[in-house]
Amino acid sequence: MPITTVDQDLDALTMRVVADFPVPVRRLWDAYADPRQIERFWGPPEWPATFTRHDMFPGGRSDYYMTSPEGEPSGGYWEFLDVDAPRSFEVRDGFAGPDGEPNPEMPSMRMTFEFEETGDGSRLTTTTYFDSLDQLEQLLAMGMREGMTAAMGQIDDVLQDGTPLDPARGTVSQEIDDRRVRISRVLRGETEQVWRAHHESDLMKRWMLGPDGWRMPVCEIGDEVGQSYRYEWEAEDGSERFGFTGEVLHLESPRREVVTERMIDAGPTETVNEMTLTPLENGTLLSLVITYPDRATREEILGTGMVDGMEDSYARLEREVLQGA
């Protein structure tokens, strides 16, 4: 158990949890920055967490839910107030309703996470600031202290697993719920480089090609909210051609982009694609959450070999764009 102390100060309206880990600060930080890792320990063992969004930058937001032993979800969110990688971050933590929006009937609280080096590794101090004594007592009565202690007891196992951070692992897909899937890949490059490679047509035409044997004759980028984009690919022998188009819904360079996507001349089926870029010690984590109209559509599209094609493109991105930048 990494936790060394848990203190409640009723006068200061705070609860402080101190935990020590036998790993460098950066490794511990990356566990909190990576949604694939933090969801393995943020919820207690009997209430596992699923992060559907995790934007670790000032003004960013995380959306998550914990699933009860009976299978019922309980939503939560973080609003990132400050991020000073890899030393500290501060959030507003609260409860969310079924629609993912903050639940006004439940309290929210400010939390700070401070990372520091120790002689044996690293120390994390988590301080929760409550708005009132009634709020503090309400959340403690709901089992906040016990839940946080149980959740943090899982971090050691996560820190021992370096697989998620290995770029050689390639592109991985993870089903989030019936309609959503998260595609993730650690890319050997700086976040700004990866962002540029997704938003400059000359660069995109060099890597976003899928398997060998294709070219990208059309690459019209939408670089403002409300603008459309259009991408088309063609087999080098001219035998096949297809493409996608959509609209930019949100753009926050160089960290987050949300777009719609539909296949050209293939009916009205549309997805919402949320791309987040997160700097890690050994590169940039690209997380792409895709929301499909329904489960059947998701399974049909994933069954086309889409993830394998994306890995071909991301490997080419590293090889031909990022490593030469």
TrEMBL record:
Task: Name the chain's protein.
Answer: SRPBCC family protein
What's the family? Belongs to the AHA1 family.
Pfam families given in the database record: AHSA1
Lineage, top-rank taxon, reads Bacteria
Activator of Hsp90 ATPase homologue 1/2-like C-terminal domain: from which residue to which, for each copy?
A: 23-159, 192-319
Q: Which InterPro entries match?
A: ASHA1/2-like_C, START-like_dom_sf
Q: Which CDD domains match?
A: SRPBCC_CalC_Aha1-like (cd07814)
